[in-house]
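Crash report, auto-generated. Payload:
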Amino acid sequence: MIIDVHTHIWAADYANSTRELLQACERFGISKIYVSGLKSHYPDEAEIAALNADVYRFMKERPDVVEGYVYVNPAHGNAMDVLRRGIEQYGMAGMKLWVATFCDDPRVFPLVEKCIDYNIPILIHSFHKAVGQLEYETTGVHVARLAKRYPQAKLLMAHFGGNCYHGVKAVRDYPNVWLDFSGTMFRRDDVDYAVKQVGVDRIVFGSDMPITYLVNWGQVEEADLTPDEKERIYSRNAIRLFDRTWRIA
Amino acid sequence: MYTDVNCLLGHWPFRKIRKNTLDDLRAVHRANGISAGYIASLNSVFYNDPFEGDEELHEWIRGTEYKHVLTVNPTLPGWERDIEEGIRRFDIRGVRIYPTYHEYDPNNDDAGRLCEALERHGLPLFVTMRMEDERLDYLLKPKPLDIESLKRFAGTWRNLRVVLLNIRFGELLQMEQQLNELPNLYFDTSGLKDKVFVVEELIQKVPVEKMMYGSLHPLYALKSTYALVDFAEIGPEAKRKIFYENARVLEQRN
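Recovered output after restart:
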């Protein structure tokens, strides 16, 4: 079984994104995808509402495979209302943070506290870059600060933090931080390094579809993992992470 | 028969490489049905005298099924004799360049003299667009090779077999005209990451005959690029071309 915890309806292109996601599920044997809608780096309230509505629509069309993240811009005055609507009305499974603010911006704190109440994961875009770092782009260092402040929060650091040697090491001491390696770096040693640093049980499979998929699948297949460890990465760790009956002690 | 046109042996100074021996390369190749490859030296990229890295590579692969690709920095002196020695001692089957690591425009006089030499020797040229993702290396920050510069280069050296290594989908679309019109311009698969069904989409735009399987092992996961071709719904003939038939042009000695 493969559960992909990191996919998108990209740039509000509902038709093409959902078609590709479903085509990938069928071709590659993906049992479930977790989807967020993304477009502008600094979306306004109307865009956020539209993107989340798209994800909700997709969830209703394909409840057998699609779960949703509610995308929130913490800089918006209605951020808490957006979160509540996403979880309580739309039935989404987690919250998505992208690049509008750092994840440890104080405006994020009430949202994190609400996610702890809901007991849902927070998918956090995290990418340390040698070139082209965005103004408020979270890195593993920011995720670590947030994890330390909220040890009961289920944080999911995306992309191994960009450069895995930066991101993974930043969060390795925080057991409430899970990691996906979605995206497009597909270096052969990233997964082995992450397993060495944090263990296999904090690593979940994500692809960043519709941007890419097989390159990240190939990383798991080629890593020095047992079949059981691969299965944990592909599905069992995600099942536990999204289980709302299971709380961090 | 399956051929990997872009594999390397040696040390990569920016991070620990877990699978960088010949045995490791053979193991991952065999696991994926690959029985041939064009290998260059990772060490040569960074050595003051790249040829010393190739001497090391020769010691590792001589007598094996793998084909030696010589690394040349044409801005350094003595590369002409290095190529001649590479042919005589190593039976080199091509030359690989790193313009962005060695900081030169492939359209400059040095690179021009190199291309003339390769035409005389009947050897193909492997052009490295990039190595790892440029966002990741904080010690050294080479930019990827400029596409407009690449277009001029490709148009100048129409008779030289050129393989573009680690070039991305969007960059290939910018080179669409050149890839369709220039008979000796090719690219490998190691840069194809930016689309779920990237191979299917790409061969709608450029001839499948221009695509060669290349992995950038040990830096990239070979299985990733292999899967892109293996899972593509393009028919067995197209896959054969990508996995080995297209690479046969590299064997010709003009």
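Post-recovery validation: The radius of gyration of chain A is 16 Å.
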